[in-house]
Specification:
The complex is a heterotrimer. Helices cover about 40% and strands about 15% of the residues of chain A. By secondary structure, chain A is of the alpha/beta class. In chain A, strand 1, helix 2 (about 55-70) and strand 2 form a beta-alpha-beta unit. Chain B has one domain (about 85-315): MetI-like fold, CATH 1.10.3720. In chain B, helix 4 (about 125-140) packs across helix 6 (about 170-190), helix 5 crosses helix 6 (about 170-190) and helix 11 (about 265-270) runs antiparallel to helix 12. Classes of the chains: A alpha/beta, B mainly alpha, C mainly alpha.
Chain lengths: ~350, ~325, ~290
Amino acid sequence: MNKCLLRAIKAATVFLSIGLAGFGCGSGNTTIAPLGEKVTAYDDGSLTIDGSTTVFPVVQAMGEDFHEDNPSYSVTINKSGTGSGLQKFERGEIDIAAASRPIDPKEDADLKAKGIDYIEVPIAYDGISVVVNPENSWVDSLTISELRHAWNLTSGVKLWSDIRPSFPKEKITFHGPTDNHGTYEYFTEAIDGKKGDIREDCQKDQEYNSIIQAIAGDRGAIGYVGFNYYDQNRDKVKIVPIDAGKSPVVPSTETIANGTYAPLSRPLFLYISKVGYDTKPQVKAFVQFALSVKGENDVKESSYVVLPKELRDAIARHLAAETTGTLFSGATPGTKLSDLYTKATGK
Amino acid sequence: MANATPSPDSQPIAPGARFRRRFRPRGLSEGVVKWLCFVCALVSILTTVGIITVLISQSIPFFKAVSPADFFTGTVWSPTPEPGKFGVIPLIVGTLTITVGAGLFAVPLGLLSAIFLSEYANPKLRNFLKPTLELLAGIPTVVYGYFGLFFVTPLLKHVIPEIQSSNALSGAIVVGIMILPLVSSLCEDAISAVPRSLREGAYGLGATKMEVTTKIVIPGALSGIMASFILALSRALGETMAVTLAAGSNPVLTFNPAKAIETMTAYIVSTSKGDAGVGTVRYNSIFAVGVTLFVFTMAMNLIAVRLVKKFRQVYS
Amino acid sequence: MIGSTDAAAVKLLAKRKRADRIFRAFCFFAASLGVLILILFLYKILIDGVGRMSWNFMRTNLSSRPARTGIWPAIVGSAYVMALTAIIAVPMGVAAAVYLEEFNTRKSRLSEFIQLNIANLAGVPSIVYGMLGLAVFVRWMALHESVLSGALTMSLLILPMVIIVTQEALRAVPKGYRDGSLALGSTYWQAIRFQVLPSAAPGIFTGIILAISRAMGETAPLIVVGAAAYVSSIPRNVHDRYTVLPIKIFDWAGEAKPGFNQAAATAILVLMIALLLLNSVAIYLRARARLRR
């Protein structure tokens, strides 16, 4: 190898190292302090959001549009999952945690113990949709008790006729997301009464896409997915209206928003640190963006359901008062959000 | 054989003795250089220590909640409903299904293609085929996952209509393709190490090429060939992204290749991205599975090294 | 006797020759199967991805709308992490290999152990490195989910590869180079620095490029160590958050909207082109090194 080339490579390496090291010592001294203390370090205009994979599409759209409106703020969004997101939130590693379920008592206690005050902001509704294969012509609706009968842990249902005698004697297969999804937890709690209670032979899949594919390819299949996945695949699967006692309700933006599609509609949350909200302008700006008209459009675009106006106003008032803590301790699936907020603010 | 360590005041050394030089740094700078290099070599030991420490320290809380017996012999992996069943056998079987399936595909094909490249191919063909196979080796694993999802599974759907979009067969095929060039190139190296004289002796006695290859060359290169199989299988075992996409995330004990399964690696990825609270038993199960995985790959590597030593033919 | 055995011998010979031909056909089939599969895959990717391929796609920011998304932050993130990884891992790996091969002529138990250890580490699944990086760099050293954490993790991942490859390149240098230099009165280090290393340099360089191209395609460790799913702009320094190409490919391949699946294919194309360029440099260097011998 000739000397010139060797020298050139050595020189390039030296320059690269100096350059990158210089980069490293440059701007961006983001001192990430535990959220209980005052953040005295230089705030570099960044916003970090992490959490639920379900909420991710909506938050990503919001983050992107927010960044377009405010190019000086840089936005980073990850989807490590609701539990991991809340944990990072506790450690002060992120500004906002996105969750597809309310914060649970243990996480609440941990945050209190660390002296971290948080503000809970619902931003959208999701409706868990029960879907079947398009060739399934016999299902017109299912009641909650039928669903429970079919899906619970000790269920002996093997044929469609076991659910309702008028159904044909066809083999039934069950599909759903894996247990690290908030959707799974919510569905099992709402239908079977206990989180995680589900029949053992349910085909679980990490990706909703795969669930849709599986159901589309099997005549006797039934499964549950988030509303946005159903909405974007209406050509592949058929929706099952749910009868919660009054009459069968098809999930749609209206029925989910006004609460008639129950108990399978659930709110999606952002958890924001109070200190961050007060000291970092980009956090405040983002939350307000999320509750604004532009935020609503992002929610619609991601096929989630916008919260009704009165509820949004109640949330805005709640936010303006910077009320901390969760309203959802002990709340069961099917509780109306508006009831909780009316109870809290007395309005 | 005497191992003489010569010193500057040269003592008479027996003829044929093997020399072992002692490195004496001349001056401070050379000593520093040697020391720096030594430190860098130690980093590898630090890495292993780090891996073992992290995995074990984080899985201890898990094994307090779930007994090792339940973990290693249980056949149901169902973290919810609480308290959850954590039998790792479905994950191990899932991993082994992919590994063995990939091996069944890659091992014979890789060996035959290595034989072709080193024994039968003319130089021009060899110069075309060898880099092309190396290109296959260079394709990133996540790309193989994509192929599994969008190419292999649709093809398989024609044959097996009820096949799920992520399934064991797709995963095995895709991983098999991924390790094929590895098997091929390692086997080829092993085969080329067999001296020509052995082959020529056999030809001189009138053997056909096939007989020379199967009776002389392959037995001669056996240690290298077996080592290559094991290394390739070990690579298949540790494969993550391709199987996460192509084979699925359904930790169920099944031998039906048309169904989705989950490997240990895919489980680690999907759970660390999932909704489990950090610190819960479910989250710590990642480290227990990680320990199992680490032990498996280490065992395979040690076996490979042992085999090479045992079967190595020394050609004078 | 010639007569009867002759016919039998001829028949046997014909049978053996036929077996040979069949065997040859099998072997050829096996070898070409690999090539065939490669061609099929590349064709499939080309068809899927070429539709969106454009400079615009590469220079646009990420978006949640499939029609508008580009991969610029991912490209920059990948390049940044890889460059940093190379700077960290290469000197360390070469130094370690030099120690094991050149300085350590007294094969102590320690060096045997180090050697075995490196061989083991080379086989450890990449996700385990991710878990290590998470615990050590992100949490313990409090580097958080930055480019630096990612680069350090990837350096640990490719270090065994770099060491092994450098060792082989050093072994390939004829003994005469060292011995001649020493005979002329040089020190060991002088012999290494001026004779052995320059001679082994093409091999070392090739190996480094192969290790880097392997690292470029790695996804799992970076997911665990915190590479984001979405960043609004490119990382400005080593402490910033980032994303890389393989992670976007993974995300988009698993998405529901088909527009994202196509974006995944295009991103794969970009990644493969980058890898192809890197590997061609390696092949060129290797050919040049061969010529010089």
